[in-house]
UniProtKB/TrEMBL annotation:
Its main location: membrane. Keywords: Disulfide bond, Membrane, Transmembrane, Transmembrane helix. The keyword Acetylation does not apply. This is Tetraspanin. It comes from Pieris brassicae. The keyword Hydrolase does not apply. It is found in: Membrane. It is a multi-pass membrane protein. The lineage of its organism: Eukaryota, Metazoa, Ecdysozoa, Arthropoda, Hexapoda.
């Protein structure tokens, strides 16, 4: 297999990895958006009637989703250019790939500089506190917040002791609801002396940490995808040169054969 065949196979492999990474970033972005929305939909809507600000935890999923869709489109262009053996398509691929790499790096930088900081912590804390206050008067919000407490293994807004001023005991979402014994499951007490509940962090702290982790993971994945894109860019250039060389050799061969016919 010559340089042409190696470049073509390598471009296929790199584009496959590139497409998988793009799909993974898109899926993670959608999941992150759903997690943020799960909190924000429980807030008191009257508090946000005139608040049209889009906060970074709400914007970052869209930033990475758009970049991921661009990656998927570019990978499709890469597959097409490798399959068609067209220098024109490879030129288009190199151009859009360069744009995609810049966007991937830019998205990571924006996320790490603007989103992975105290502003995200403040947004999450304000949101959780608003939802927590809603639980005092709205049973549906209290039920939904309980689901969040179970999922994140947290309790209260800032700490488990938030419940002490207005409840007789912790909600069951702060404790293990059931111990699955040999015979049957049974409920346990969830009083303020419950050790497990008191050791849990507040949901504002836990949610903020998870948000930061997701932002870092998305940024890291974006940078890694950009590196794969750079590799495919180099292979595409090598493939373009191989196609040009192959065509020159074919042209010289055809010219040589035509001269033999004339002789």
């Amino acid at each position: 297999m010559g340089s042409y065949g190696i470049s073509k196979v390598t471009l296929y492999v790199l584009n496959t990895i590139y497409a998988v990474l793009g799909f993974a970033i898109a899926a993670a972005s959608i999941w992150f958006f759903c997690q943020v929305t799960e909190f924000t939909t429980l807030r008191n809507s009257n508090h946000y009637l005139l608040d049209y600000t889009v906060y970074w935890p709400q914007a970052i999923p869209w930033v990475f989703l758009i970049v991921a869709l661009l990656v998927l489109g570019v990978s499709a262009c890469g597959f097409s250019s490798a399959h068609k053996n067209s220098r024109g398509l490879i030129t288009v691929f190199v151009t859009v790939q360069s744009i995609a790499i810049i966007c991937l790096i830019a998205a990571a930088v924006v996320a790490l500089v603007f989103a992975d900081n105290k502003s995200t912590d403040d947004f999450v804390k304000d949101t959780v506190w608003d939802v927590y206050f809603q639980t005092k008067t709205d049973n549906e919000v209290a039920s939904s917040f309980g689901v969040i407490e179970r999922k994140l293994h947290c309790c209260g807004a800032d700490s488990p002791r938030d419940y002490k001023n207005w409840k007789n005991e912790f909600p069951m979402s702060c404790c293990d609801t059931y111990y699955h014994g040999f015979l049957d499951a049974y409920t346990i007490d969830c009083e303020f002396t419950n050790k497990l509940a008191n050791e849990r962090h507040g949901c504002s702290t836990v949610a903020a940490q998870y948000a930061r982790i997701v932002i870092k993971v998305l940024s890291g994945a974006s940078i890694f995808t950009a590196v794969i894109g750079m590799m495919s860019l180099g292979v595409a250039v090598a493939l373009s040169k191989s196609i040009a060389k192959k065509r020159r050799i074919q042209a010289l061969k055809n010219e040589s054969e035509s001269k033999k016919v004339l002789l």
